[in-house]
Amino acid sequence: MTHRIALIPGDGIGLEVTPAGVRCLEALAQRPGLNFDFTEFPYSCEYYARHGTMMPEDGIEQLRGHDAILLGAVGYPGVPDHVSLWGLLLPIRREFQQYVNLRPVRLLRGLTSALRDRGPEDINYLVVRENNEGEYSEIGGRLYDGLPEAMAVQATVITRKGSERILDYAFRTAQSRPRRRLAYATKSNGIKHSMPFWDEQVAAMAPQYPDIAVEQYHVDILAANLVTHPDWFDVVVGTNLFGDILSDLGPATAGGIGVAPSANINPDPAIPSMFEPVHGSAPDIAGQNIANPIAMIWTVVMMLEDLGEQSAADDLMGALEAVTGEGKVLTRDLGGNAGTTEFTDRVIAELTG
Ligand code: NAI
Ligand code: MG
């Protein structure tokens, strides 16, 4: 099967880790029956500097015909972050209704957690973040700007449809895992309207999934428990803002930003999902071949799973974890001295050897 992949390397280390991911895919494509057709798009801050927009007007349409989008990172000094975010990432996530942001938090073999005495058996959960609505809405405004009476209002939008589809995804994901537990983040004790509504949607759906143990946590104690008792958690679902925060906290306990993968998913196979490492463009280390490609390679694993290539995904993840488990070839952020390409070479050797 040939999968059409849109590549957006973006900026900074995105230009270094994306080729690492592509090399892994090309190594897998040596197998009969698996092929990738890559189309590269130059959308980035450099593109912005030349054209005044992050992507052309029909950029979304150009991406539409692909089976998946693989993105490195966007953002660079000189272009305000809200320009790069609202000009590229958010339009892609919203136009394609990629309403699931999925972030696995799992301590890979051989890596050290920031949490004392925690090993791979303790940290293995999945954060499912609502990716299209919630606290990140465009509804609101300012009044009396600059005056002592100045005020700002930002509305949170939680819809029944939006909650149902993310919760359904979370429940089904919990069903696919051996522990069958779903924790959900709320703050219905302090936020009077939107969070009780969210809780009601969970309560209404739970009876359809009698095999799932559902646990409610207010987001503050949930954050604390992810640090003190990560082993309690299996699937964690939250609205956009809460999910965003928890899904940065999680990877911080599992080897850091250089290893954290993510996916923006629309489960409808007719619409492309977008896969991207959690990290940004890291201007401080860009261009030196020292960026850790683990986040990107693991992101590629998630893309393969979404494309239905489970055995290729398992093999690539196995190769990646064999290399981390061995602990000999690691990049600097993990205490080693290997470069981006050297680490990638090692993973490919493991994969094909
Ligand atoms: P960042 O994730 O780029 O970097 C934070 C720190 O982690 C830096 O010290 C960096 O060197 C290090 N780091 C990140 N990825 C690494 C890797 N693979 N290997 C080794 N070290 C790594 O976040 P920062 O500095 O806040 O943002 C830089 C730019 O990236 C900004 O323009 C920001 O808007 C953009 N950004 C883009 C994102 C995206 O494309 N999804 C996400 C986050 C930030
Ligand atoms: Mg974030």
Provide structural commentary:
This protein is α/β, with parallel strands linked by helices and 353 residues long. Helix content is 39%, strand content 18%. It has helices at residues 14-28, 45-51, 59-64, 81-95, 160-175, 194-205, 219-228, 240-252, 294-306, 310-326, 340-352, and strands at residues 2-10, 35-40, 68-73, 100-106, 124-130, 140-143, 151-154, 181-186, 213-218, 235-238, 263-265, 273-275. It has a ten-stranded mixed β-sheet with strand order 2-1-3-12-11-4-5-10-8-9, with helices on both faces. A two-stranded antiparallel sheet has the order 6-7. β6 (140-143) and β7 (151-154) form a beta hairpin. α1 crosses α9, α1 (14-28) runs parallel beside α11 and α10 (310-326) packs across α11. The radius of gyration is 20 Å and the shape is globular. The mean pLDDT is 96. Bound molecules: 1,4-dihydronicotinamide adenine dinucleotide and magnesium ion. Residues 4-347 form the Isopropylmalate dehydrogenase-like domain. Keywords: Manganese, Metal-binding, NAD, Oxidoreductase.
